[in-house]
Design a protein that fits this description.
- It is found in: Cytoplasm.
- Homodimer.
- One of its GO terms (cellular component) is cytoplasm.
- This protein has 231 residues and is an alpha+beta fold.
- Among the domains are: 41 residues, no CATH class; 73 residues, HSP40/DNAj peptide-binding domain, CATH 2.60.260; 37 residues, no CATH class.
- It is built from four helices and twelve strands, in the order E-E-E-E-E-E-E-E-H-E-E-E-E-H-H-H.
- The protein has a four-stranded mixed β-sheet with strand order 7-8-12-11.
- Strand 2 and strand 3 form a beta hairpin.
- The longest helix has 16 residues.
- The termini are far apart.
- The mean pLDDT is 86.
Amino acid sequence: ECSTCHGTGARPGTKPTTCPTCHGSGTVRVQAGIFQVQQTCPHCHGTGQVISDPCPDCRGEGMRRTARVLNVKIPAGINDGQRIRLAGKGEPGQRGGAPGDLYVEIRIRPHDIFERDGDDLHTALPISFVTAALGGEVTVPTLDGESTMAIPEGTQCNKTFRMRGKGVKNLRTGDMGDLFVHIEIETPVNLSAKQKDLLRQFDESVKADGEKHNPRAQGFFDKMKSFFTQK
């Protein structure tokens, strides 16, 4: 809305006058053959008023284009593509009329840690092979901050754990989704000579009883051996 004329479109100190053509109705009747039809007044363009002395700032439009910054409250659990309606924050109506509404369409940026699936969240958690083998407690990032989670002995890569109620709030019901933690076993790098030697000793100690310690790997090699033997 123009701050000079307050939306009237008329120069300060003056007022719009009633349209002499339609007498303020905004419409006129015209003859179309044997019928009379009603149409928008061509003089006032349907407003019912005319401005003889327009506002110098908005040139009679009653509004000016300006940039504004609005604070928008984002409800928890909103989804990508949803719209928020801000009543009365749209373009002002002509000649002091009621303003329209502003619709804000939400676009959710990808997150570095979490991947969203509806109300559920997914995250990858790297752990050491020692923790995977012996078990222990690990720290897991959640929307509420850090939480602890128990890792059982013998946890395998790609194992998924579910933390109930640690997901996203449902916008309609208020229920919380779950957080799914996908385990990634990290292979150690930059080992010293002593550390490598210890790993070799460990490897030798389990080779004699490989099926007990590495059942999946042993089963795979047995299948491969059987496959080539049959040929």
